[in-house]
Design a protein that fits this description.
With 283 residues, the chain is mainly β. It contains 3 helices and 14 strands. Strand 6 and strand 7 form a beta hairpin. The radius of gyration is 18 Å and the shape is globular.
Length: 283
């Protein structure tokens, strides 16, 4: 379910490290007004590291990235911060969910992550040219306000600057945490789910719906249900993140009830776990 226009939101990894790659890579078109600000957009790349798959322990970034810059919070400090308080973090872009103009100000939403946790940046002001520079792995320093919306923790009213560094996260399998209270500790991270079973999305027996209530059409979000260990969950293909021309959009439309599937996505939250899926592999 999406946020309405001009709503001020209140809503905020794998033990060992492997060699990384370099590279420089957000939510709904509805948005809240944000003040524009000047940002540094000189994109740069540096040595990065990626977390290994299959573990729920948080990785560490070695070398210069072990220490945060002056005035920058660790993920633990960010997690402990009060809602509506100002926060400053250093993080790395993992995916971006669309750019648009809100009352003449360009804004975009980003999934970002460091070695210890993830930060969802909602409607962060940036020009269209700046948006193009904020590619996957790019390191940014962000100052904004820790907010919450229907369980989703995010940073709003943010400003940023690009810094040296690069990090691309590997998905962490959280399948066995689905029924656990610990799952929320991985909120907004890149995660994977394995051995899930496709269930009927509604009483009609369809394997997916356009929009959460079936009211949409081609190009809208896809909602589908999957089960594991007797419990059923609703997963989403967020159209602003992965549109109708993406492989995952097409894969979900081809699902059949009863199929076993493996998936990857960002652990978004809406009144409970509601992952934004970016990859589906069916048996």
């Amino acid at each position: 379910m999406k946020k309405s226009i001009n709503t001020l939101v209140a809503a905020a990894l794998a033990a060992s490290m492997v060699m990384s790659m370099t590279g420089c890579s957000g939510k709904t078109a509805e948005s809240s007004a944000s003040e524009s600000s000047e940002v540094s957009c000189a994109a740069s790349t540096a040595e990065s590291v990626a977390a290994s798959e299959g573990s729920t322990a948080a990785p560490t970034i070695s070398g210069a990235d072990e220490e945060k810059g002056e005035g920058v919070m660790t993920y633990a400090e960010y997690s402990a911060a009060e809602l509506d308080s100002q926060v400053t973090v250093e993080t790395y872009i993992q995916a971006k969910q669309g750019w648009w103009e809100n009352e003449g100000v360009g804004v975009a939403t980003f999934y970002t992550q460091d070695a210890d946790g993830a930060y969802f940046l909602y409607n962060m002001p940036c020009s269209e040219d700046e948006y193009a520079l904020l590619t996957e792995g790019t390191k940014i320093k962000v100052t904004g306000y820790k907010s919450e919306w229907s369980g989703e923790i995010e940073i709003t009213d943010a400003t940023y600057e690009i810094e040296d560094g690069n990090y691309i996260a590997e998905p962490v399998d959280v399948t066995d945490l689905l029924a656990s209270d610990d799952l929320i500790n991985s909120q907004n991270m890149l995660v994977s789910f394995t051995g899930m079973t496709v269930e009927a999305a509604d009483d009609s027996g369809a394997a997916f719906l356009y929009n959460y209530d079936g009211s949409g059409s081609e190009g809208d979000d896809l909602y589908f249900k999957v089960s594991y260990n007797g419990q059923t969950y609703t997963f989403t293909v967020e159209s602003y993140l992965t549109g109708s021309d993406s492989d995952v959009y097409k894969a979900v439309k081809a699902l059949k009830v009863g199929q076993k599937v493996d998936m990857e996505g960002f652990l978004y939250w809406y009144e409970g776990v509601n992952p934004h899926i970016i990859s589906v592999t069916a048996e």
